[in-house]
Amino acid sequence: MFMNRLSIKGGYGEHGRSCFLLPLNPLCAPQNGSLPVQHLKGAPQAQEERYYMLDCGIMDTDPDPYPQVDPDLLARTEYLFLSHCHKDHSGAFEEFVRRGFRGWLVTTQPTLDFSGIQWEKTIILENPKGDGTDEKHLDGGLSFSYGMTGHCAGSVWFHFHDPFGSVLYTGDYQRDALAYRTDPIEGRTADLAIMDCAHVKEMGDADSLRGKMTRTVGRWVKDGRKVLMPLPKYGRGLEVICMLRKSLPHARIAADRNMINLILKTLAYPQWLKPEALREIQAFLEEKPEQRLGSGSYHILLLGDTHLENPESRPLACGLSDQGAAVLLTGRVKKGCLTERLLAEGKAVTMAYPHHQSRGDFLKMAGQNDFRIMLPFHNPEKEIFWGRPESQLK
Ligand SMILES: [Zn+2]
Ligand SMILES: [Zn+2]
Q1: Which domains does the chain have, with CATH numbers?
Q2: Tens digit of pLDDT at every position of the chain (394 positions)
Q3: How far is the CA of 85 from the centre of ligand 1 (A)?
Q4: Cβ distance 221 to 299 under 8 Å?
Q5: What is the pTM of this model?
Q6: C-alpha to C-alpha distance for 29 and 33, rounded to whole angstroms
Q7: How far is the CA of 152 from the centre of ligand 1 (A)?
Q8: Beta-strand (E) ranges in the chain?
Q9: Distance from the CA of 72 to the center of ligand 1, in angstroms?
Q10: 357 Cα: distance to centroid of ligand 2 (angstroms)
Q11: Strand pairing report for 300-303 and 227-230
């Protein structure tokens, strides 16, 4: 049975803190948080228990944001694979080093750059070639292929073959992204698949979720209301620009300096963007969106400050909202922040941007691959599917 090998340290039953631990050799015993179990037989014996880890995220809304991994286990973690730069996948790195991690970090250049992580023992992956067939081999009997996930620059999925079998980890994945390229996960076989299902209550695909959002924004603009969208670092901002320009071509879009800087940093890695999106984003920058903010001549304002924490965005957001602007939140709401207050006062609305998989996307992926055990992650549910999920869902 395969599940006895997986130790879940975060990201399952919660929206954030992603961290999964898998053994590299047969001496490894299940740790706290691992799911029920049989004993492994027949695998070759090794001298020392070693592990590999998938992501090391934090839950920044939690007073103790870190995944609970014993220092002893961290010291025996040979490889740490980072799927992408977002804090809910990378934020615990320095703390893990403080607690004893000394292994190899395996990730892409944009992830390293955007997360600010510096680590001597880093294996930097070249840009994926597109079909995910390029196999890398590491010491310890671990090999893997990888591809782009459509989530942000540098974001990758991994398909591992270790001495026990195969594991597919999607990271944060959206096949039908507008701005970012995706190497589709299809036709793959794995004993265990840990799969993004962040929009677990949503059956619609990316186009239908985006359609809902642009209809709402379009109504506000038609009613003469300004629309304020606070957006996170790296990722969703470029998606939202492509979405708005495509669906609401007459809406004037402004952006603050933070947002512009985030866009420019992503443009340093154009290989991760779709060519048509690259042209769209460059055309957007040529319209001088920051000047529109200065003159107030805009319909939609994008702020590169997802929780409205920056001292300069707070008065701007409060002023606009007092004048009747609609505030549209597209991600998690952090406790104690201005976004939470605006939401409580009925001045803000939350809508999911399809930057992850919905339940419908998850089911589609399940149908396009041959996965024995499927673990949907990045949501508050705790589900596990043994074979075809459709037959196990009500
Ligand atoms: Zn992410
Ligand atoms: Zn995430």
Answers
A1: 3-202+356-392 (3.60.15.10), 206-350 (3.40.50.10890)
A2: 567 789 999 999 998 999 999 999 865 544 444 443 333 334 444 467 899 999 999 998 888 999 999 999 999 999 999 999 999 999 999 999 999 999 999 999 999 999 999 999 999 999 998 887 789 999 888 999 999 999 999 999 999 999 889 999 999 999 999 999 999 999 999 999 999 999 999 999 999 999 999 999 999 999 999 999 999 888 899 999 999 999 999 999 999 999 999 999 999 999 999 999 999 999 999 999 999 999 999 999 999 999 999 999 999 999 999 999 999 999 888 888 899 999 999 999 999 899 999 999 999 999 999 999 999 999 999 999 998 887 776 5
A3: 7
A4: yes
A5: 0.92
A6: 12
A7: 7
A8: 7-10, 19-23, 51-54, 77-81, 104-108, 122-125, 136-138, 142-148, 156-162, 165-169, 189-196, 227-230, 253-255, 300-303, 326-329, 348-350, 370-377, 385-386
A9: 28
A10: 11
A11: parallel
For residue 15, the ligand closest to its alpha carbon is: 2
Cα of 110 to ligand 1 centre, how many Å? 13
Q: Relative to the alpha carbon of 377, which ligand is closest?
A: 2
The amino acid at 162? D
Say which ligand is closest to the CA of 232.
Answer: 1
Q: Which residues pair with 195 in a beta bridge?
A: 376
For residue 341, report the distance from its CA to the centre of ligand 1, in Å: 24
- Distance from the alpha carbon of residue 160 to the mean position of ligand 1, in angstroms: 20
| Residues within 5 A (CB) of ion ligand 1 | 86, 172
Q: How far is the CA of 104 from the centre of ligand 1 (A)?
A: 22
Residue 348 to residue 343: CA distance in whole angstroms: 5
309 neighbors 337 (Cβ within 8 angstroms):
yes
Q: How far apart are CA 229 and CA 222, in angstroms?
A: 17
Strand order across the beta sheet in which 348-350 lies: 253-255, 300-303, 227-230, 326-329, 348-350
**Distance (Å) from CA 370 to ligand 1 centroid:** 25
- Residue 174 CA, ligand 2 centroid: distance in Å: 12
